[in-house]
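[Structure tokenization] protein backbone as discrete codes

[Encoding] learned vocabulary of local backbone shapes

[Begin record] amino acids and matching fold tokens:

___
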Amino acid sequence: VKLVESGGGLVQPGGSVRLSCAASMLDIEYYSMGWFRQAPGKEREGIICINTRGISTYYLDSVKGRFTMSRDAAKDTVYLQMNDLKPEDTALYYCAAVGDPDCGAEYTDWGQGTQVTVSS
């Protein structure tokens, strides 16, 4: 199983970016997928998960109303749309997968991450 994130970069405060996570050797139709992030000097934190039915569960209150997650089973890809970005959103963003129809199980597969830096 391989998860590859992309779409990160430098963005100004208030801007938007969409991250992608492409899965190989894994049919995401049968996996719940999550996004996590880790800022320098801080622990990794969960952001959001999407189950096999396309229902999202937020782990992080501070992103509600700004971040949304979606999935495209035909492309085995999930996305994280991030709007109204703030400097405190700066972090390395990871996607993860678990072979469970619902969010909440321990993730078994992780990507390498893509850096998002929010700065003017």
User: Anything to note?
Assistant: The longest strand covers residues 17-24. The CA atoms of residues 35 and 95 lie 4 Å apart.
